[in-house]
Amino acid sequence: MLNNEPEKNATLRRSLYSVLGLVLMVLLFWASYANSKFAPKSKDFWEYIATTSIDKWLNNWPKWLDMPLQPWANSGLDWLVINYGIYFDMVNDFILSLVISIKDILTYVPWPLVILGVCLLTWFVSGKKRGTTLLVTLCMFFIGFLSPKFWDKALETTSIMLIAIFICLLVGIPTAIWMSRSARVRNAILPVLDLMQTIPSFCYLIPGIMLFGLGAVPAIIATVIYAMPPLIRLTDLGIRLVDEEIIEAADSFGASSKQKLWAIQIPLAMPNIMQGINQCTMMALAMVVIASMIGTRGLGDEVLLGLQQLNVGRALEAGIAIVLLAIVLDRITQAYGDRIQERTH
């Protein structure tokens, strides 16, 4: 006789979710009615429904049917600032000190040594590919050659991006591992990732400014939210695509879940993980100009000034410098990913 318990449990869960969804919709309708100043009084509600013409219902959305998301969000943010503002200040000071330290280190090193260091890094991570190394070295040189002021600004942008990418790795990879090991967790997190990628990036800056003030820190937080989803998706996909026969062979040798993860799944998924890091880096760099609108220094600052002054040449120079920095970061991460993929095959 077949065991139907799993199917019964799945049906029960679906029914429970449907009931919870219905209850949530009723609560939202009640909240919109109770918080609207246009809502008819409760004793006149059914009379209002009966006397309102169908044409009015169809052509004009009822003003009282309005979910009060805006006051909820504002009051929730105010509550966070009032009750936990000191903790956000501590996070702000810590991240800002990291950004300043990395920027000071990069700007303290003479520029030829920085270019030489990037050249050597590209040479080794690319597997000694001369074409990739030459391209990256020339791009680094031309950032300063376009205008000397771009050199320090490029290093400042790089320091902000390094912090943002590090936070993405710190949060994104464990989240992706968690998703790959549980279908229920994946189904819960995927809509959140869709939301993070769909909401315009400007929307992330507003709560960031209220919680952390102007400057680099809210830009880093917004960059992390915007750039993390592709890293999580590609890492999760890479872990789940590991051949089942390899996993079964590991099981036959008595490997634990932790051993399978770190000795088999993560190494085999490294090409996907590096592709995720590459996409994360490119999306983080796309936030440079937007972040400059809230006082973040760097190459995006020059693009914004060119826009404000209608100075085409200034904006063009800064835009080319951003493209050159993007080529450098893209080629380094992509070359390392290709090298890992060749080694894996």
Spatial shape: flat
CATH superfamily of the largest domain: MetI-like
Number of helices: 15
SSE string: HHHHHHHHHHHHHHH
CATH architecture of the largest domain, please? Orthogonal Bundle
The percentage of residues in β strands lies in under 5%
Looking at the structure, the CATH topology of the largest domain is MetI-like fold
Low-confidence stretches: none
Beginning-to-end CA distance, first to last residue: 45 Å
CATH class of the largest domain: Mainly Alpha
Give the % helix: over 70%
> Main beta sheet: strand number and arrangement?
none
Total strands: 0
| Mean residue pLDDT | 82
Radius of gyration, whole Å: 26 Å
Give the structural class.
mainly alpha
Query: What count of structural domains?
Result: 2
Summed up:
The chain is built from 15 helices and no strands. The chain is mainly alpha-helical and 345 residues long.
How would you characterize this protein structure?
With 345 residues, the chain is an all-alpha fold. It has two domains: 5-59; 72-344, MetI-like fold (Orthogonal Bundle). The protein has 15 helices and no strands. The protein has helices spanning 5-34, 45-51, 54-59, 69-108, 111-125, 130-146, 148-180, 183-198, 202-212, 216-240, 244-252, 257-286, 288-291, 299-308, 312-344. The longest helix is centred in the N-terminal third of the chain and has 40 residues, at 69-108. The mean pLDDT is 82.
List its traits.
mainly alpha; MetI-like fold; 2 domains; 15 helices; 0% strand
